[in-house]
Amino acid sequence: MYTYHSLKELFDLADKAECSPGIIACRAEAEESGKSCEEVWNRMKKTIPVFRNAIRQGLSDTGKSASGLVGGDASRLYHGKMRFLSPICQRAASYALATAESNAKMHRVVACPTAGACGILPAVIAAVSEEENSGEEDITRALFTAGAVGRIVAEKASIAGAVGGCQAECGTACGMAAAAAVDLIGGTTEEMGHAFALAVKNILGLVCDPVGGLVEVPCVKRNAFHAVHALTSVEMVMSGIRSVIPPDEVIEALNDVGRRLPVELRETSLAGLAMTATGRRINKRLEECARKV
């Protein structure tokens, strides 16, 4: 049996089997679904061209979304001259923006774990795999690792902004991306856990305050920031830095903080950036446009 309900259980299973947590996740999915590991594996592999296409569309389609709030920024960042970001961080941030912009324009994306945070994991996976020249099998394995991590967060806390704020969406995606990136470069389960912990604990308390109720402002740009954030946590861990708070306890804190957030800061657009003067003007414009349709 490949049952796990915590990161410790997942990593212990992987260490015992001397394999990646992604392999354990694939086997667990096969057990639960009654399908073969090969079927489950190939289904995950099919997400790779989907998220790569979303990146391409986001970079090439520089028009605005229907709301007029986002669009074209991914291309600007991708082609811009960086002063401080490394090439891989530039690509990761650009890819995350591109994916989130694709989502805003109703292109097909991989919600991992949600549409609002859809750019973070694909961007990190794409940028790191390009840097490491990783093949599709390696990427698929890392995606399973990310999925296993996200599944545990969903079980023990939440991946929904309406329940736990954006810390539950961008935070979880960032942690998933950090763990997956460590897997992709051949890191240990211990390093995956600490990368997850470092990534998530520094996003605790992030509110979900979409302007006009749309997953565009500030959501799209948050994807870019947190893709780089995930890479930062990976660099720290691979340099020997460790999280003082264990990863499973970080998930407990994520749940606790999310439950304590006022309902106004949980995707209701009743506070935060959504209720700034500009946010209210945008919301009014969108409501007027909706009435005319």
Automatic annotation (TrEMBL):
Its cofactor is [4Fe-4S] cluster. Pathway: Carbohydrate biosynthesis; gluconeogenesis. The keyword Hydrolase does not apply. Residues 28-274 form the Serine dehydratase-like alpha subunit domain. It catalyses: L-serine = pyruvate + NH4(+). Keywords: 4Fe-4S, Gluconeogenesis, Iron, Iron-sulfur, Lyase, Metal-binding. It is an enzyme of class 4 (lyase). The keyword Membrane does not apply. Its EC number is 4.3.1.17. GO terms for biological process: gluconeogenesis. GO terms for molecular function: 4 iron, 4 sulfur cluster binding; L-serine ammonia-lyase activity; metal ion binding. Pfam families: SDH_alpha. PANTHER family: L-SERINE DEHYDRATASE (PTHR30182), L-SERINE DEHYDRATASE 1 (PTHR30182:SF1). Belongs to the iron-sulfur dependent L-serine dehydratase family. This is L-serine dehydratase. It comes from Dialister hominis.
